Amino acid sequence: MADQPTPEATTEKNPPGEAVSQKPSSGGVFSRRRLLGTAGATGLALGAAGGAAGYAAAPAADKAAPLTSLGTDTVMFHGKHQPGITTALQARGHLVAFDLAAGAGRKEAAALLRRWSTTAQRLMAGEAAAQDDTDVARDAGPSSLTVTFGFGNSFFARTGLEKQRPVALDPLPDFSSDHLDKARSNGDLWVQIGADDALVAFHALRTLQKDAGSAARVRWQMNGFNRSPGATTQPMTARNLMGQIDGTRNPKPSESDFDRRIFVPAAGDPAWMANGSYAVVRRIRMLLDDWEKLSVKAQEDVVGRKKSTGAPLTGGTETTAMNLDKTDADGNLVVPLNAHARITRPDQNGGAAMLRRPFSFHDGFDTDGVPDAGLLFVCWQADPLRGFVPVQRKLDRGDALSTFIRHEASGLFAVPGGAAEGEYVGQRLLEG
């Protein structure tokens, strides 16, 4: 949960507060009481004759104006980079890891990635799956669907491609704050799905799981969500389940060194990772009962930023640079030494930076009513040994926020560059 913003949509889908109004053709406006009274008088007849009249009065479906353009938004599958990395945050997400089946190797993996890429391309364009489509998303458009594929450390031994395994994919070190469930960590293959419609996202998840067939089985799967596009009056950095504006210093594509920090260079090593990136995935449970017992002032001291605006405690707006040396009237640092925002600043970590693109999660309550909720942390970088690892080590040594969170699952995946027209994702690795 580093102090960097998550990608957000830069335009609003609908004008704030706009409502659909329906005016009667004559006789003024019906009051709710009058309408209910009429319904009571006509009884069941309204369900038949009245219903038919309602349909007759409604405009033809092919002439109806769409309520929003949200469903028509499309993200391209083919490109220099895979989708779902710099794409604006989506309202719904699924993270799923697969293990290759016993006896499956390089040939089966190549066939699987070919199937998956074909399916992803079709679904992202708003088309039905090539075969046995479930019709779950029949009435929806693409809804900014993205599908992203990656390879775990174990994939390379399973496919006889050990010599092609990147050094950057070496296992992450152990951290003292970890409470990792191995069954929900790592995996041979990783898929990230995001969309602005829950049914579209589920449709993609189910279709890809069926596409795996006998070649691979699900190892773990997690569901997440974000604020819906257009839910705020203006574009805003997302809030997490602690109520904090989560991330204000994400690297931006407009910055001159963005590609160098986030993507493997075109001449990088190994060659098949050109224009790719590395994803660190962490299931971070938030201990919300403990957190919510703190006063707002105490929460702000833990984070180092105002809860209401995201501005640093030293003043200004969300994007104002934090004055780490500023003290109060008693000579105490305004931003405590162990504040999360202080520890995670890139200039306090040798310039280490990562592009955070998380989802919140809530998986119910335990027997004591404690919420199983938190953050599906996903961060992208050209090299995790220079991005995630040094920042997490520093957090591990004294982050005030660590008292209120618990890292419960972890994974590291090599995500190759985007597939060109006529290619499938990972083709340069599997057929190189």
From TrEMBL:
GO molecular function: ferrochelatase activity; heme binding; metal ion binding; peroxidase activity
Entry keywords, A to Z: Heme, Iron, Lyase, Metal-binding, Oxidoreductase, Peroxidase, Signal
Main location as per UniProt: other
Sequence segments annotated as region (Disordered): 1-29
EC numbers for this chain: 1.11.1.-
Chemical reaction(s) catalysed: heme b + 2 H(+) = protoporphyrin IX + Fe(2+)
Listed cofactors: heme b
Keyword DNA damage: no
Domain Dyp-type peroxidase C-terminal: 237-419
Protein name according to UniProt: Deferrochelatase
